[in-house]
Design goal:
27% of the residues lie in helices and 27% in strands. It has 10 helices and 13 strands. The strands form 4 sheets. It has a 5-stranded antiparallel beta sheet with strand order 4-5-10-6-7. The chain has a 3-stranded parallel beta sheet with strand order 1-3-2, covered by helices on one side. The longest helix is centred in the C-terminal third of the chain and has 13 residues.
Length: 262
């Protein structure tokens, strides 16, 4: 039987994490799949489990000084229902999995799972999100693009917890999200796309573009975005070959159980 800790406060959770290197467990919707065993048997957990899903310090969404902080244990359903959360992130969450999964799964869990097909990730990359990590030694903040280092890999230390996600709040005139899956609902992403732009009098003032499930991590090219900023929409067709060439350096899909690379 695996040892399980149920802390009452974040302070307690950080102490357990430091002392036992316990695996953080919030909703468990990704973790139970990653640790699955043979049918009819229990998942494989060879280290203690730290139940953090009920910690009030890791819940809620709060905006201050044009920055939104979402608690790592905020459920996907609650995030999608909160109008302070940017629309593109709510659109992505509403297309994730099933209602049951969204009611259990958390935004922190989806980030820490670090799947190239993680549904919240393209939107969070486009929003310039960062993560707040805490241990008994202190707190640090990392850009999400630095935190996720590869498929299933992150820069979290074995004494740290992801406590919140930080998103600079900004209005966009154009928002677009698209997910392609085997089914219209309850399906993993074959491909996902998040786009944000501010367009004024036919001119692109700001643009953010992120692709999911087409490379080891979410693809976002600052080079391509900078090329697009300041141009008129009428000039876009002439730039498309150059833009496609930039993204072709990063977009490297693979054959897998969900789809062929093509």
């Amino acid at each position: 039987m695996v040892e399980t800790f149920i802390p009452k406060t974040l302070k307690e959770a950080l102490e357990y994490r430091a002392g036992y290197k316990a695996i953080p467990f919030a909703g468990g919707t990704d973790l139970m799949v990653r640790r699955k065993s043979w049918a009819g048997t229990l998942p494989k957990f060879d280290t203690p489990i730290l139940m953090i899903g009920g910690l009030k310090e890791l819940k809620g969404c709060a905006a201050e000084n044009s920055v939104l902080r979402i608690g790592a244990a905020e459920t996907l359903a609650d995030a999608a229902a909160n109008e302070v959360v940017p629309e593109i992130l709510r659109l992505a969450v509403k297309q994730m999995a099933s209602p049951g999964i969204r009611n259990m799964g958390t935004i922190g869990g989806n980030i820490c799972n670090a799947s190239p097909a993680g549904d919240t990730l393209p939107a969070l990359y486009a929003l310039n999100a960062s993560v707040i990590l805490q241990s008994v030694k202190g707190e640090r903040e990392l850009a999400l693009s630095q935190f996720i280092t590869g498929p299933g890999r992150t820069d979290i230390k074995d004494d740290e917890l992801l406590i919140s996600v930080s998103i600079p709040l900004r209005e966009f005139s154009n928002i677009y999200y698209r997910k392609v899956g085997t089914r219209k609902a309850d399906a993993l992403s074959k491909l996902s796309f998040a786009g944000l732009a501010n367009i004024n009098d036919g001119k692109i003032e700001d643009i953010r573009i992120a692709f999911g499930a087409v490379a080891p991590a979410v693809v976002r090219s600052v080079e391509a975005e900078n090329l697009l900023k300041g141009i008129n929409l009428a000039d876009l067709p002439a730039l498309m070959p150059q833009i496609k060439d930039i993204y072709s350096r990063f977009i490297r899909p693979i054959d897998d159980q969900r789809s062929s690379a093509a």
